Inverse folding.
């Protein structure tokens, strides 16, 4: 019973903690992209992958199935991540149990459950929680395969890891061994991922154009970035080093260093959330580090770390985004009349303002006056706008929804995010009736003059 309790209790605790207020944070831009993609028919998801998010197609297919079964509420969209993070807690504890026994396993699993980063990405409709789960599972199955065989199960877990998040395959740097069985298991698994990798390589410039190259300060601050708290990140990393398991520590650290090198030498891509798959490994090591203390001090340290994380736990349950899509939708819904039109700005950015408004208002929103082809018709995440706004803006009342520019820190004005042609039409034929400021957005209503 004790051997099972050491992983079962953390899994239950993780499920309870991560499910708490899982519906409260509104969807942010990446989750809106998930919703837009995953609600399409399967052939259209593959068509989307030919132009954007090719590496994310397997995850979109998974969420497509979830939507078919339980709908597209925030909790429904986040359900795969919630389940995967619960499983990741169990796998983390089982990994620690295999290496050091039940007590380190229990400490590792409980620490995993109370870390804010776990709740944050359990409540995220993207593939990061799945990558964390399969990274822990693959490492666990690798240890078992080396002792008892079972390389097929290991290979399947590696394939699932790569399909969840391709950069997570960097974990293989630490898994690599001399056994031919390892190579025989890994090669077919990697081959499954290669088609999506090729799509991603062709889309690199579009996908990563928002990134700048990291520096040594970024690398030094990585524990804080990864764990959402400098104190917690430093504590987990220090305990991981104390555990003195060189192979597992290298498995966790090598992906970080290699991705940083790629960022410096090839293309900027050093992003904290891209490396979340190393968290279970570091936490398993930290459980061993805690267990080197006596039981009572170890539990006290665990409780202190949980308390330190409470403010962050509270923050991540308020919002995931600097853009209040739900608030903007409420303002427009309250003031809109039949026959109103709406204009979004900017239309080609990563804010996905039009997708956010459609998610929160469904079809009950003003006519998208400038749209001539939607994201679905374009096999992308962006709509195509009318080249002649004067001909397309015929409504008597026009809403403008302008998003702040996070890259420059510039707050959106009433019309400055609109195209020059659209600004000219509004200035010539309309007068501003009202303006409202919502976090991340400036909303205005124009009426024909």
């Amino acid at each position: 019973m004790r051997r099972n309790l050491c992983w079962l209790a953390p899994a239950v605790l993780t499920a309870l903690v991560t499910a708490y207020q899982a519906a409260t944070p509104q969807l942010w831009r990446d989750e809106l992209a998930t919703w837009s993609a995953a609600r399409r028919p399967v052939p259209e998801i593959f068509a989307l992958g030919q132009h954007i998010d090719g590496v994310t197609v397997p995850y979109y297919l998974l969420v497509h199935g979830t939507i078919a079964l339980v709908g597209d509420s925030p909790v429904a969209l986040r359900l795969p991540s919630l389940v995967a993070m619960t499983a990741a807690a169990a796998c983390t504890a089982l990994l620690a149990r295999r290496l050091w026994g039940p007590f380190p396993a229990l400490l590792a699993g409980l620490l995993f459950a109370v870390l804010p980063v776990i709740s944050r990405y359990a409540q995220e409709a993207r593939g990061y929680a799945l990558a964390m789960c399969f990274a822990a599972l693959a490492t666990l199955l690798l240890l078992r395969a080396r002792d008892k065989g079972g390389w097929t199960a290991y290979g399947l877990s590696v394939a699932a890891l790569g399909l969840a998040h391709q950069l997570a395959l960097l974990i293989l740097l630490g898994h690599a061994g001399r056994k031919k069985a390892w190579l025989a298991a890994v090669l077919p698994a990697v081959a499954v991922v290669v088609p999506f990798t090729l799509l991603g390589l062709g889309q690199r410039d579009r996908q990563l154009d928002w990134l700048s190259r990291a520096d040594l300060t970024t690398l030094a601050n990585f524990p804080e970035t990864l764990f959402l708290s400098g104190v917690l990140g430093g504590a987990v990393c220090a305990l991981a080093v104390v555990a003195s398991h060189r192979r597992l520590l290298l498995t966790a650290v090598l992906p970080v260093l290699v991705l940083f090198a790629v960022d410096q030498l090839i293309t900027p891509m050093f992003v904290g959330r891209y490396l979340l798959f190393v968290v279970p490994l570091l936490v398993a090591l930290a459980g061993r580090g805690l267990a080197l203390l006596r039981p009572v001090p170890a539990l006290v340290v665990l409780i202190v770390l949980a308390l330190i994380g409470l403010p962050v736990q509270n923050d991540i349950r308020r919002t995931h985004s600097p853009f209040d899509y739900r608030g903007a939708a409420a303002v427009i819904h309250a003031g809109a009349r039949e026959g109103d039109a709406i204009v979004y700005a900017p239309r080609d950015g990563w804010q996905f303002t039009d997708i956010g408004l459609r998610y929160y208002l469904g079809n009950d929103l003003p006519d998208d006056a400038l749209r001539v082809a939607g994201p679905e018709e374009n096999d992308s995440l962006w709509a195509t706008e009318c080249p002649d706004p004067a001909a397309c803006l015929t409504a008597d009342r026009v809403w403008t929804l302008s998003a702040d520019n996070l890259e420059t820190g510039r707050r959106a004005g009433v019309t400055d995010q609109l195209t020059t042609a659209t600004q000219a039409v509004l200035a010539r034929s309309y007068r501003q009736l009202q303006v409202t400021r919502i976090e991340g957005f400036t909303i205005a209503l124009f009426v024909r003059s």
